[in-house]
Amino acid sequence: MDAVEAPYAVPPGWSYNPSSWGQRLPIVGLALVGFGIATYLALYQWRVFGSVWEPFFGEGSRVILNSSVSRVLPLPDAALGAFGYLLDAATGVVGGRARWRTMPWIVIIFGLAVGPLGAVSILLVIFQPVLFDAWCTLCLASAIVSLIMIGPAMDELLAALQVLKRARRDRRSTWRAFWGLEDHQLPPVTAQARHRPGRWHHTENVAGFAED
Amino acid sequence: MWAQLLSAILGVWLMAAPAVLGYGGIAAAVDRSIGPLAAGFACVAIWGATRGVRWLNLPLGIALLVIPWGFGYPSIATANSLAAGLLLGALAFVRGTVAERFGGGWSSLFGSGTPNHEAADG
To answer: Is the ipTM of this complex over 0.90?
Structure first.
């Protein structure tokens, strides 16, 4: 957790801020690793590379990466995976340190991008031995990366959904809350704010205090 | 958290078991399907905010206990399935410690009671 956390960057009832860079950057890093692996595999599937690295399972990677399942869609499956990882990284980076509250929409897109990518990974890992009797080392590595990302991403999604829940409970517009247009956790100019003018002089700016 | 790590290792073991113990057929297909699911759920459940996902490994454990009896498993596969199922199901009950607070968690999104995350709302 950031040492200089703005007070209203921690969701109510939480012990930490799920949108802090310390929370998000590791996920973005994992997404970029996944993007690298998937891009390499996609380039093999497009025959930019003539062979693929496979240290453990002999012909396994070639069998898997040329299987019928990998060509079900117009694009090779690794290319779709690479796009998914890129979407994860991009939606992980956008927004400030209070984005669960100031930009719930991007947090929700982020959660929706990370979750299903991991689910599809599990499915593909099952297909490898059951349908094709082969294993693909880098495909497994990619699956591990996508699975490790899910847990750390879901806490931020929870905080964003709680913002919408509060809006609905108070009969405010969940639509406006979704886009971060109504920020009901902005503090009024409090005694605390007056004592710390350097941190709070942008109170009218929705995200201002989160960006210092 | 150790329970989730153990469950993840158990899932990976199920993926490797057919090759290591030398069995195939339906037993291998079942273990190679349940293994990635168990490892995946455990992997997500390692984190505090999604610790509840560990319960998804309970039905998988029960499946490992039940399926061997109907499909003519070789005895080594049956023994492995029963041991893994028992362990996986038991580990689902182990919540472990969650140091962080999440404003009432996922259940706070449902129902009409005052959720924890609202109590602190200004």
So the answer is: no
